[in-house]
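From the shared-data thread, chain only:
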Amino acid sequence: MDIKILLAEIVGTMLLILLGDGVVANVLLGKTKGNNSGWIVITWAWGMAVFVGAYVAVALGSGAHLNPAVTIGLVVAGITPASQMLTYFIGEFVGAMLGAFLVWLHYYPHWKETADPGLKLAVFCTGPAIRSTVWNLVSEIIGTFALMFAILAIPKTWGLPGPFTVALAVLVIGLALGGTTGYAINPARDLGPRIMHAILPIPGKGSSDWGYSWIPVVGPIVGAIIAAVLFGVLKPILGI
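Structure, as tokens:
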């Protein structure tokens, strides 16, 4: 196991979740300065959370996946060795859980000021606007397809810096496609904090919605694989 990759993914994903779930807490929890500031604030901050987490992970020595679906997609595309998958997965899930813990800690006085248990859950993980197993799954597949295809295309586009352009991709995915399921597009981002929601002592927190929890895990993985396969098919055809 490559310790440098492991630690880089832990720290990078931790910052991703701290800032990403942090903005959701700021918007949704009671008596915060950002209460009710809205979807645009959330999507912009999530994009910038990707920017911060990815740049830190790169600086510390990993490929800055921060996302098991991206790791799988890069393995399918032949960019990341399969032997590194477990290291990335552990780093991503541990980092996501640590980030969620820090959000809980940072907003500690505000949990009891929030009556709706659904809002508390939404700080940690995603949920559908309209609950439909098939269409929620389709939404996560499409959103992650867009993310994975962008990640694969970015190194071939004008030499632009990867983390910054991936952050912009996440921003537009949130603005354009996030209204259906909250655009998890990342199994660790959803499952790690959902686990923390289940185990942390949050007053009046309610259910962790485990019946839905597989959709933001399976959907992103399927979307990333489809994008990687399609990109691989197009590369020789287009000569890229």
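The radius of gyration is 17 Å.
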